[in-house]
Structures are given as C-alpha cells and as structure tokens.
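for the writeup, i need someone to sanity check this before i put it in the appendix. the sequnce is what the collaborator sent (i think, or maybe the updated version? ugh). structure was predicted straight from it, no edits. if anything looks off just tell me and ill rerun, i have time this weekend
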Amino acid sequence: MNDKVTLREKIGYGFGDAASSMFWKVFSIFLPIFYTDVFGISAAAVGTMLLVTRIWDTANDPIMGIIGDRTNSKWGKFRPYLLWISVPFGLAGVLMFTTPDLGVTGKLIYAYITYTIMMMAYTAINVPYASMLGVMSPKSNDRTSFASYRMVFAFAGSILVVATYQPMVDYFKGIVTEQTSYQLTMFVVGLVAVLFFVLTFSWTRERISPPKDQQNNLKEDLKNLGKNIPWFVLLGAGVATLIFNSVRDGVALYYFKYFVGDESVVEWTATTISYSTAYLFLGQTTNMIGVMMAKPVSAIIGKRKTFMYAMFIAAALSGVFYYIDKDGLVMMYVLQALISFCAGIIFPLLWSMYADSADYSQWKTGRRATGLVFSASSMTQKLGWTIGGSVTLWLLSYYGFEANVEQSAETLDGIKYMMSYFPGIAALISGLVMIFYQLSDDKMEVIISDLDKRRSEE
C-alpha cells in the first residue's frame, strides 16, 4: 500500500467537512429562526425539542463508532459510510425544512421526527468521517495537516452557506411561498453536500488497522476509554467550546433582526447584502484564517498553549461585545473578526489532539479503538452544541421573545447578553480546562515512535 499522503487526498478529506459544516451552519444559524419565524413554533418548544432529540442523537455517536470499528470492507472500516449515507443525508435536510400543512401540535411532531432523522443521518456519516483522521496516517504531522485541511474546507463550506443561503431564500421567495423557498434552498445545499461526500470517499485511503491479534472486546475498549485522561480533558474543553460557538451563532440573526435592524443593507457591486449576512460571512472568513494559522502557531508554542490563549482572548473580546450600540457596526465587525479568528485556530488542534489521544490509548493498553474514541469525541461535540442551542432558545423565551414583533428592552438586553457574556464564560471555561492537558508535542513524538516500532515488528 502507498503510505505517501498526497495533496489530492488532503483536499478530498477536506471536502467531507465542507459538506458536514454546510449543514452544521444551517442547523446553528438558520434553523432556529426558521422554526420560530417561518415554521411557526415557539422558541421554548424549539429549545426543548433540540434537547430531547439531541440527547438521543448524542447516544448514537458511540454506537456508530462501535459499528465502524467492527466494519470490514474492501474500502476500509469508515470510508464506505460516506458513500452509503450521503444521499439519505441530503434528503433528510430537505425534509427538515419542509413545512407541512398542519396545526401547531402536528408541526411540532413533524419537527421532532424529521430533526431526529436528520441527526441520525448526520451521525451515520460524520462519525466515520471523523474517525478516518485516526487511520489515514500514523504520523502526527500528517494528522495535523489533514485536520488543518479539514478545517479550512469546513469553514469554506460554512462561508458558502452563510453567503448564499439567505440570498437563495430571497430569490426563491420571488417565485414560490416563503416556506417553499426554504425547502428549495435546502435542496441545493443538500445536493452540493452529497457531491462533496462522494469526492471524499473517492480520494481518500485508510492505512492503519488495529493490531492483527486484537479481538473485538467492547467492554475492554470502554474500560480503556474511561482511563484515557487526555481524552477527558479534551471532552471538557470541546463541550465548552461548542457552547461558546453555538450560542453566538444561534442568536446572531435575532440580534441583527431585532436589535440592529437587518432591513438596512449594504451595496456590493450589483448585489444587496444584509448586515447579518456580511457579519456571518466575515466570521467564517476569519475562522478560516485562524484554521490556516493553527499549524504554524502550534509548531512554535505547542497545541495546548495555542488552544488556551485563543480561548482566553475570545472570552475577553466577547465581554466587550455587550457594550456596542446598535449603530456601532464597525466595532461589531472588528470584534467578530477577532473572536472568529480565535475560534478557528483551535478546531484543527482539537481534532488532531483527539487522534493523539487514540494513539496514547493504544500505547498504554495495546488496543486501538479509533471509532470509539472519535465517536465519543463527536458525542461530546454534539453535547456542547445541544446545550448551547437549547439554552439559546430557552433564554430567548425567558427574556420574553415573541416572533415577528418589536421586542421589549428586557428582551433586547437578553439578546445582547447572549452575544457577549454567556459565550464568553464558556470560552473562559474551555481555556481553563485545557490547562490540564498533558500530551505535549515532545511526548507524542515518543509515543508515535514506539507505536511505529510495534507495527514494524508485527
């Protein structure tokens, strides 16, 4: 087998997270306001639905990881799922943005069913995709490179969505009803995502297999995961980071629609762009710049310090956001760029460190359970996303939010808190937790060298 990692393979791996991130941004930014302002259910009901369905979805992640670890095919353990699940993944997105002609209760039941199906499809394709990072190369530098490409493409996919989603909705609204315009927009997004997953499947390879004498033993794998202290540190930091991101993303459109006044627009060539679209586009662009800086910065000061410092800076800058007046667009954009840069730089490091924790577990125990490690990691990411998304909608309800009406001073103040202090606290917690991460770059070199020797002996 060819062990050399090619540029095409890195690009191919990146396409997979472009697809996932397109949907992730749709879930985080556009779905909440679609449910409350278009679909027609209350913010509190949406928040509860997200919590209930995502708890079930979170439990599915380790199950999918276990299935992946026990899959044997000519394409490997994890790659085939990118081919098998891509079309159901795209179709589930369209169903989720379809508004049935039902009453409030019927709509809520429909939302529960379609959102659950969407999340199960997301798990079935994204857990194997994430697990591939642990089996495409044994070299830590290759993994950081794969993770960096993954994150660059992830934010490229996010940029594509935030730049085109609302303009597509507005375009289709000139042809069909508002509800159908969201459905057609999601059809286009789903079609692109399917293509990206097929390219990932076609252009990547799996190179690492479990030790030849390793027998399937779920109890032993779970026991080893429970002793993996670096993984638990990453768990805590990852959950806090996702809460930080999901609260800021989830409230952004409400902030611009009800506080800033998103009817105002800026002219760019022949296109009219809303303030919120420009804000989200800027955030994803600077996210991607942060991703590209992850490898050079961490090569100088290490992964752990890069992660910590980025989160501490993001926490401080988030607090400042509260004091911006609704006319302070320049400062909003400056802070958005700086905070998003800090958020972007940590994600390739986080996934690279998850791969390192899988190596650490094999080094300590002699067993490798890549799918379980990454699915459990994905589970914690969804947990943070679940908490952040549900809390955002519950807080909107708590502060008295009502869709499509002028909001009270108390509600607007609550929305400002959700753009500033609440995510800032989560970022601070993430940085503090990372203090306890002990797999330094030097230690990983020793671990990887030892594992290489064991493989060569086999």
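The first strand starts at residue 265 and ends at 268. Strands lie at 265-268, 271-274.
thx in advance!!
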